[in-house]
Each structure stands twice: as structure tokens, then as C-alpha cells.
Amino acid sequence: MARRWTNDLTQTDVTPKALFLNRRALLGGLAGVGAASALGGRARAQGLEPNSYEDITTYNNFYEFGTSKADPAAHAGAMVTDPWTIRVDGMVDRPGDYALADLLDGLEIEERIYRFRCVEAWSMVVPWNGVELADVLSKVGVQARARYVAFETAVQPDAMPGVRRRVIPFPYVEGLRLDEAMHPLTLLATGLYGEAMPKQNGAPIRLVVPWKYGFKSIKSIVRISLTDEEPPTTWNRLASHEYGFYANVNPDVSHPRWSQATERRIGGGLFSSRQDTLMFNGYEREVASLYAGMDLRVNY
Ligand code: MTE
């Protein structure tokens, strides 16, 4: 199922993935090992070595649990993620409160090894598992008037110390233009390294938009709304001059308080040098056409 990437794919050197593909097979029920192998090969051809499970699950941003990088791993265990219901509403043919399993029913869980670049100028490489958001949206039937997709995170005050302290306004909200949402790179991720999504990473289901800064990749989603107006987004509400709606990774457009030209790869060791940040986080060929004719300094 290497759809849309056929030209880049190599089948070489997939053995390092064997460990978690086996683990995935043991977990059972998850399809798409073929795609995983193929994309694993492609990622390797691009020199993408995933960060360790430890890196990915101990250095997190999830303000519902606190503002330090260690808070999510320390506190997210208390979040209740089963049962999980997602409200789908707005301009869709089949609105409703969907059990997560029903929303995913019949869809193939694929593996995607993506660069992940936080607006704070650190980065990782993450082997996600998930479904294309486009496939979920097709299931619920997007109406012709819809132009944007809005997302909302769960609020569980009893489990979430950051919500109780109101470190920022909650629920955390995000949004995409419909064409961004429908892009084949855009994932609703349900796991990483072949395992169910750890709570600190946004269990049971979170967005992953690899060409945008990490704050667009909203965690623990409980609501997906189709609208005809650009939806509000949490960081834009808090500081609109620093965080735009688009938030595309762009080494040429600095954050007002720091450069975005380079990034620090987590897990690279204390003395590792910074690496250059790539336009659209390295996905320029796939996504640049979405922004043709737009001034990316204005639409940051
Ligand atoms: N989603 C919610 N609900 N709350 C958050 O604080 N932080 C964002 C994003 N999604 C955040 C969120 C930011 S700033 C980043 S960089 C990524 O989650 C971090 O994802 P990770 O912890 O899986 O690396």
C-alpha cells in the first residue's frame, strides 16, 4: 500500500524495523506491514533514523499536564483514554458522536516515519502509526461548503494539572485548511513504534502534520468540526504575532524571539552540532503547491 509514494520507494534495508514490526504482529489486528516496510525503506533512503522510544516519550509538550518537558510523562498516566468518543460535526453528511473504533473501522493503520520540528527549534524523527485524515473525513462525508477543519483536545481536569492551574486557556484547539487536511501526508496517529499511542504523546489519537511546527499537531482529539471559516487556534490566540494559523516550517521566517534557520536534534548528544532546518521541514516537494501564490512571510 505504498500509494502516492511509489516513485521514491526502495525495499532495501528494512531489517532494522523487524523488531517493532514483530511487536506489531504480536499486538495483532494492525494491518499495513507492507506499507511500513516500504516507507521504512524510503525513510532510510532519506537518512531518517528514528529517535529512540525513550526520547519520543520523555521530552514532550502537552500543557494540559504542565509546562515542563517532563510533566506529560509524569502525569498523563491519569488521563482516561478508553472509552474514547470523537464528536464530528459541522459541514459533514454524517455528523455524530463516534466511538474511536467505529471511526477507524475498515481503515488501514500505516507506518509513517516523519521529521517532527517544534517551533521551539528542536526536532526528532518519529515512526508514527495512523490513518490518513483524508480517509476519516471521506467516511463522514465532507460537504462542498466546508473550507476548514477544526480540532479540539479533551479536557479532564481531574487528570490534568495544567488544566487545573489554567496555564493556558483550554480546551486546546487547532485547525487546518481543508486542502491541508486532505493531503496524504496528514495523519491521525494512533501509535508509534508499532505500539498504542503513549498518553504523553496524545493518546488515543492525535494529529500529525509533518511540514508544520509541532503545535499544529493537536493531541488527544475529542472533536473534529468542518467549517467555512478559519478556526481559532490556541497559540495564535495567545500570541498572534508569534504563531500564525499556517505555521509552516520555514527557515527563512524567524520567530520574533529566535531564528528558525537551524534546529537541535533531540538525542543527538550534548556536543552534536545544530542542523539546518529544511523548507516545509523537508516536505517541500509534496506540499509547496498548497501555498502557490501566497506570501509566506505574511501567512506565517
Ligand atoms: N496538543 C495539546 N492538546 N496540548 C499541547 O500542549 N503541544 C503541541 C503539540 N500538541 C500540545 C499539543 C506542541 S507545542 C508540540 S511541539 C507537540 O504537541 C509535541 O508533541 P510530542 O510531545 O509528541 O513530541
Q: Could you list some keywords that capture this structure?
A:
single chain; 300 residues; alpha+beta; Sulfite Oxidase, Chain A, domain 2; seven-stranded mixed β-sheet; five-stranded mixed β-sheet; 21% strand; binds ligand MTE
Architecture blueprint of SSEs:
Blueprint: H1 18-27, H2 33-45, H3 53-58, H4 71-75, E1 85-90, E2 96-99, H5 100-104, E3 110-117, E4 122-132, H6 133-140, E5 148-153, H7 161-164, E6 173-177, H8 178-181, E7 187-192, E8 195-196, E9 206-208, E10 221-227, H9 234-238, E11 262-265, E12 275-276, H10 284-287
Bound molecules: ligand MTE.
Ligand MTE binds at residues 60-64, 118, 153, 172, 201, 214-215, 217-220.
Protein model, in words:
It is a single chain. By secondary structure, the protein is α+β, with helices and mostly antiparallel strands. It has one domain: Alpha-Beta Complex (Sulfite Oxidase, Chain A, domain 2). It has 10 helices and 12 strands. Strands 3, 4, 7, 8, 9, 11 and 12 form a 7-stranded mixed beta sheet that branches. The protein has a 5-stranded mixed beta sheet with strand order 2-1-10-5-6. Strand 3 and strand 4 form a beta hairpin. Residues 1-36 have low confidence and may be disordered. Ligand MTE binds at residues 60-64, 118, 153, 172, 201, 214-215, 217-220.
